[in-house]
Amino acid sequence: MIGMTARIGKSWLWILLLADTVLVIGLGVATGAGRGLGSPAVAAAVAGFVVLATVVTGVEIRRRRRQQLAAYRELHARRGEGPGQRPWGLPGKLGPAELGLLADRDRGALLGVIAWLRAAGALVSHPRHPQQQVAAGAAPNDRLAAVLVRVAAGPDNLYLPGLSPLRHHGPERPAAIDKELAALRERLKAQGLLRDIDVSDEFTPRPWHTPWPVAVVALGLVAAPLVLLADGGLTAAAVLLTVAGMLTWTGRPITLPEHRGAVSPDGEWVLVEARRRHDRSSNDPRAIGVTVALFGDDALEDTDPELHEIVRNRNFYQFSADSLTDNGV
């Protein structure tokens, strides 16, 4: 029964509720039972149904929370698994792209490399449109840097608001940038600094965690027309409102904040060591990019005020896709 109810989509139950509501209204108009209160026995039965629905809804919500907490604990345990050997030589060898991706995902990698390229003179702002970066020199020896300079040398230049893959600002991010970011993630995984954490098999989102909410909703859909004929419109409306409340508060799938691409314990150690060892006062262009990659917007304000102004005005890829989704954007 659980497997059967798991396949019943919430949208179908909303459709049935709407159809049932139309049926109740039609019966009320046809029979003149659109108002009034009937026998105490029917009213007591409806009150019992409301209590039953409330209890089942509470149990379902509590069960969902327990399963979600279990999923969080499993993610935390898997994130903590590691070989226990520190990659001692890596903190000083990684560049802005690698350190930025570890510190702030795609946004950190892009911002660190762009700050590096601007400090090196390979990118400059368009004279009339500062949101666009124009290629002004050769790219340093870095794969992501080379892709960004190549895009900036194209007819559309490097359009900073367009770096978001969510297309909130203008055109879609160029496929060449997405391809290089994916390759960068694979290299970090090969070094043990980034790792996939996927618990989708163990915690597959399901619309229903027990069969009881579906059974109660089905009971309410059948009972509403009968209550209307026996007792009038007010008690039937109470049944339908209770069913709508159950559909609103139950049937939400288990959601996980992060399924893949988590920074490993070794990756966290590399970030701590890189921040500890890095000289923020260096004027070397690569060092400036590393500073921005490691320390984010605060460092950007000191090293590149113009680019910081673009970021501050939300004309750059501000947030990760996961955080935007979590906040309902």
Automatic annotation (TrEMBL):
Domain of life: Bacteria
Keywords: Membrane, Transmembrane, Transmembrane helix
Transmembrane residue ranges: 12-31, 37-59, 210-228
Protein's UniProt name: TIGR04222 domain-containing protein
Naturally occurring in which organism (per UniProt): Paractinoplanes atraurantiacus
